[in-house]
Design brief:
The protein has helices at residues 2-32, 64-95, 101-113, 120-130, 136-160, 164-172, 177-185, 190-206, 209-214, 223-232, 239-265; strands at 34-35, 45-46. The protein is mainly α and 274 residues long. Strands 1-2 form a two-stranded antiparallel sheet. The chain starts with a helix and ends in a 9-residue tail after the last helix. The model has no long low-confidence stretch (mean pLDDT 84).
C-alpha cells in the first residue's frame, strides 16, 4: 500500500501536465460539432455541417474516402516492406559473417542521418525516369526505402539479444538456416516486430512531404495532403471544415497509440552489440 501512496504525487503531477492537452482535444472535437456566435468561444448549437465531407465531395478535392484509402494503403504497404526487409537484413547483419559487415552497418546509420528534404530533387528525377512519379507505388517505395535504415538497425539490435544456443539446437536437430530463422529466432523478437510495425505505420500515416511532392494528383492524394490543400484554398477556406478533417485524420492514430503504446515502447529495448 505504501508503494502505491508514493506513486500518487507523480501521477498527480503528470495528470496536471497532460490536462491542458486533453482539454484541447476535447474542445477541438466539440468545436467541430457545434456553432458559436461571432466573437465567442462558447457554443450555442449543435450541428453536423462541419462533417459534411463524410458524405459530400468538397469542390476541387477528391472524396475523403479515396484519400483515406490511399493513406491506409500507403501506410500499410510501407509497413509490410519495412518489416520484411528489416527482419531479413537485421538477421543477416547480426548472425552471418558477411563481407564488409562493419562498413554496411556504418552506411546504414549514415543513410538514416540524411534529412528527407535533401534527397527530394534526386528522388523526383529518378521517379520521373522510371515512370513512377505521381503514383502511389512510387511514393511507397521511397518512403519504405527511407525507413529501412532505422528498421534494419533496430532489428539487428534485437537479434543480438537472442542466445546463440537456440540456433545451435535447431541446426543440430537438422533444421536449415531459413527454418532456424523463421521458426526459432523470429518468435523471440516478436515485440520488436510489433513495435517496428506500429512505428512504421504511424510514420507512413503522418507522412506529408513525400506524397505532396511525389504524388500530388487527386487520385493518389493522401489525408495529409488533403488537409493541407484545405487550408491553402483562399477562395473557399472553411476553418470549421479544416478542424473536422484534422480530427478525422488524427483519431486513428490516437486509437492505435492507446491500444499499442506498450508495444511501441519496446522498440527502444533491443540490444546493440557490434
Amino acid at each position: 500500500m505504501s508503494g502505491n501512496y508514493r506513486k500518487w504525487p507523480m501521477i498527480l503531477f503528470l495528470g496536471i501536465m497532460t490536462a491542458p492537452i486533453i482539454l484541447m482535444y476535447v474542445y477541438l472535437f466539440l468545436d467541430t460539432v457545434t456553432n458559436s456566435p461571432p466573437g465567442s468561444m462558447i457554443p450555442n448549437e449543435f450541428t453536423g455541417e462541419h462533417w459534411r465531407f463524410l458524405w459530400e465531395t468538397i469542390p476541387g478535392r477528391p472524396s475523403i474516402w479515396v484519400a483515406t484509402w490511399n493513406t491506409l494503403v500507403f501506410a500499410s504497404v510501407t509497413t509490410v516492406i519495412v518489416l520484411v526487409v528489416s527482419s531479413a537484413a537485421g538477421y543477416s547483419l547480426s548472425r552471418l559473417n558477411m563481407p564488409a559487415r562493419s562498413f554496411f552497418l556504418g552506411s546504414i546509420m549514415v543513410l538514416h542521418a540524411f534529412p528527407t528534404v535533401t534527397l527530394l530533387i534526386a528522388i523526383f528525377l529518378i521517379l520521373q525516369m522510371v515512370g513512377l512519379y505521381n503514383t502511389l507505388g512510387g511514393v511507397i517505395l521511397v518512403k519504405a526505402s527511407l525507413e529501412l535504415p532505422f528498421g534494419i538497425w533496430i532489428m539487428k539490435g534485437f537479434y543480438d539479444t537472442v542466445p546463440w544456443e537456440i540456433e545451435m539446437a535447431g541446426i543440430q536437430d537438422g533444421a536449415t538456416r531459413f527454418q532456424v530463422w523463421t521458426k526459432l529466432v523470429l518468435p523471440q523478437v516478436k515485440p520488436a516486430i510489433m513495435a517496428l510495425g506500429i512505428f512504421s505505420f504511424l510514420a507512413g500515416w503522418s507522412e506529408f512531404i513525400l506524397p505532396l511532392v511525389l504524388a500530388p494528383d487527386n487520385k493518389v492524394q493522401v489525408l495529409s495532403v488533403y488537409l493541407a490543400a484545405l487550408i491553402a484554398d483562399d477562395n473557399n477556406f472553411d476553418m470549421a471544415l479544416f478542424k473536422s478533417v484534422g480530427v478525422f485524420y488524427v483519431v486513428p492514430v490516437i486509437i492505435l497509440f492507446v491500444f499499442f503504446q506498450n508495444k511501441l515502447m519496446n522498440i527502444y529495448s533491443g540490444g546493440n552489440k557490434g
